[in-house]
Known about the structure:
Layout: H1 12-32, E1 35-36, E2 39-43, H2 46-63, E3 68-72, H3 88-97, H4 124-142, E4 150-151, E5 154-155, H5 158-167, H6 173-176, E6 179-180, E7 187-193, E8 196-202, E9 205-206
Parallel strand pairs: 1-4, 2-3, 2-5
Antiparallel strand pairs: 6-9, 7-8
Helix pairs in contact: 1-2, 4-5
Amino acid sequence: MPSAFLPHPLTDDGIAHAAKGAAKVLDIASEHGWELHRQVHCSVLLRAWQTASEMSLAFGHALNREFGLVESAALCERSVGALANLTLEQIDVIVDKDPRYAALPKGWKSNSFHKLPYPGAESLLEAGKRVADRVESVAADLAPRIERDTVVVFVGHGGAHRHCAVHLGALELDHVRGLSMYHGDTVFLERTAPNQYTQVAGAWKVREAYRSVLPPSLGGTAGEE
């Protein structure tokens, strides 16, 4: 489905992914000597909230202190508005029957710029900007109040997070279509200046069809002999 506004809870596998992701955050933070901020930020969608809950409980157990959750609709996945939670086939049929619009272009779902012509719809880049604004707002508020490198965990959705990284300067737009995210896993971005971030740990999931055009720094093979 092109919309992630589904109300379903995590499966058992999803809960296991969340626990594994929390362990990875703890390991990497410990390895680098990073503090873990006591608020975990998450999308308001149930599966994101559950993931954040599982992670915050794991953090609290490991570090012997309480972690809280902060929900925000700004961290949700790209919205397709009035066509939310429909399959690609259903959306194609609806648009085909609408005399106001031409047929949808091939590959529109992964096109960073394409926005469905219905109320409430966003492009992936628009969703990424929404997430990036939220991340930067939290980081800017926290920056004057911390004395050591601190990890703030944001739990959301892959498409919006990848395009968030583009807006924050941590990922090139040309590379986005070749990447995904592992369930429950984390990519670590460091804030180097307002609205400027760089990737310092973790890894994106590489889509095999794009591996040959991605640089080695992202797990690709472009330029390698």
